[in-house]
Amino acid sequence: MAVVVTSTLVKSRALAGAPLRATQDPRWVRWLLIGIALGFLAFFLLLPLAAVFGEALRRGLGAYFAAVGDADALASVKLTLIAALISVPANVVFGVAAAWCIAKYSFRGKSLLTTLIDLPFAVSPVISGLIYVLVFGAQGWLGPWLIEHDVKIIFAVPGIVLATTFVTFPFVARELIPLMQAQGSEEEYAAITLGANGWQTFWRVTLPNIKWGLLYGVILCNARAMGEFGAVSVVSGHIRGETNTMPLHVEILYNEYNFVGAFAVASLLALLALVTLVLKSVVEWRHAQAHAA
Amino acid sequence: MSLLRKQHSVLPGFGLSLGFTLAYLGLIVLVPLSAAFLKTAGMSWADFVAAVASPRVMAAYRLSFFASLAAASVNAFFGLIVAWVLVRYAFPGKRILDALVDLPFALPTAVAGIALTAIYAKNGWLGQWLEPQGVKIAFTEIGVFVALTFIGLPFVVRTLQPVLEELQPELEEAAASLGANRWQTIARVLLPELFPALLTGFALSFARALGEYGSVVFISGNMPMRTEIVPLLIITKLEQYDYRGATAIAVVMLTASFGLLLLINLIQKWSRRHHRV
């Protein structure tokens, strides 16, 4: 009896169209949810992105390129590149060292160490800048000594580099730690047994294994380093052409009602963000492929 | 160093890598962070309370808290739908959309801030239509909420996606074959499975919103008692060379953020145990 009921049910479904599986939603639900998701993302993501480029090009291409080629704008690009070129490699070396000791050995306090590495993500950008002012500022711990020896850190380039390093601190480490933990140490043991020394093992065995994860961390770290605003804003003196990074230059131009200039520099940062997203997707794809192979 | 070592490993480099990790962590993160707490420890209790509980600061706490809460809730609701759609349905442009979800992570906050202001200001892309209707967004609390929703958007989607992908279809099929309809399956089977991830995403989005600065300052208008967020107050105090006041507020915020971090870790630990059973 039951068999008969089921078969008629299947037949009527088949007549009505595609069979509906338990994990499938009716077509109207699917389209409604896709519509809501697309609407939400278009409203909150695409519209702001379009606004950046639309406002930057409002007075035409000539005004756009004049704003991008302005001497102070170029100086801000240069400083942003310098800050990223120092802080990203520093955090790469740290990330590799941290992942090596956390993934390859067991020791007491390991989970505490892992939590502490994530700490900068929980700190407001403004506070990330403030703490360096408390250490290196004129009123800070090292302030009198620094003034005596004529070393400027706060309101100068070293402060910007330090604050950038703080906010991008966890990116590489948190990509590498789970990756290296999942990979285990068998290949390294084999290399050591076959007579390789520690550095040879690292360069020839570990590094090729973690290259996609490392690259992924570098991409994210770099995007944040070049785009950081709050932390850098606190330690920079906002001196045009000297201590202005690109995001700070955007703010200055905007507050002077130079909207085309502000959005032109902002559009460069938005392009950087889009390139970051593309690279990130490519790396994710290659990593998945390497994993499947 | 050897005290820390629990088991011997043939791999070299333990001392070097751990030593470097601890030194770098200490110099870049722990020592500067402790400076904030030590600076505040030097204040008298009355001074501390006066700095962190004045009416203007209280108004900023209230705004930061409720705007972040509203933004995280909106992100939890829509993030669930976005994650569901991205994992379960096929439609053209899905991969681009998936990549685009990370835009708030990649786009510098200052850029997001001026872009949102250009959209919602009185003569802006949407503002010019909304303001005549009496809907003001830029330079009000709603503007703060919009900016915080933008920067918190990826968290819920990205914490839910892997959980949804690993969810076995057998669960839903079993529920359906036992006579549950689709809504019952979703409410009684799927949502309880997704809940820890949803809560984690909500908490991450909330924590990020509390500390956010760059995207908010342009759209909020920064009116004392009305649209001033807590990080902005810290900047304001710093500009007046009131380092103690700024640090005291920072310590309150740091305590709140570390509490949230702890809570998020607990949720994740709880959900892992929940999954193993």
What features would you describe in this structure?
- The complex is a heterodimer of chains A (293) and B (277).
- Chain A is an all-alpha fold.
- In chain A, 79% of the residues lie in helices and 0% in strands.
- Chain A has helices spanning 2-16, 27-56, 60-68, 71-104, 110-122, 125-136, 143-148, 157-167, 171-183, 186-193, 198-227, 230-235, 246-255, 259-292.
- In chain A, helix 4 crosses helix 8 (157-167), helix 4 packs parallel to helix 9 and helix 4 (71-104) crosses helix 13.
- Chain A is globular, with a radius of gyration of 26 Å.
- Chain A starts with a helix and ends with a helix.
- Chain B is an all-alpha fold and 277 residues long.
- In chain B, helix 3 runs parallel beside helix 8 (141-166) and helix 8 crosses helix 10 (182-211).
- Chain B has 2 domains: 1-41, no CATH class; 45-275, Orthogonal Bundle (MetI-like fold), CATH 1.10.3720.
- Chain B has 13 helices and no strands.
- The model of chain B is unreliable at 1-6 (pLDDT under 50).
- Chain B is globular, with a radius of gyration of 23 Å.
Helix content of chain B: over 70%
Percent helix of chain A, as a range, is over 70%
- Given the helix and strand composition of chain B, which structural class is it? mainly alpha
Oligomer: heterodimer
Order of helices and strands of chain B: HHHHHHHHHHHHH
- Largest sheet of chain B at a glance? none
Would you give the CATH topology of the largest domain in chain B? MetI-like fold
- Low-confidence sequence ranges of chain A: 1-19
pLDDT averaged residue by residue of chain A: 89
Tell me what portion of residues of chain A adopts beta-strand conformation: under 5%
What is the tally of beta strands of chain A? 0
What is the average per-residue confidence, as pLDDT of chain B, rounded to a whole number? 90
Structural class of the secondary elements of chain A? Answer: mainly alpha
Gap between N and C termini of chain A, in Å? 50 Å
Task: Please report the first level of CATH classification, the CATH class of the largest domain in chain B.
Answer: Mainly Alpha
* Main sheet characteristics of chain A: none
CATH architecture of the largest domain in chain B: Orthogonal Bundle
Q: Please count the helical segments of chain A.
A: 14
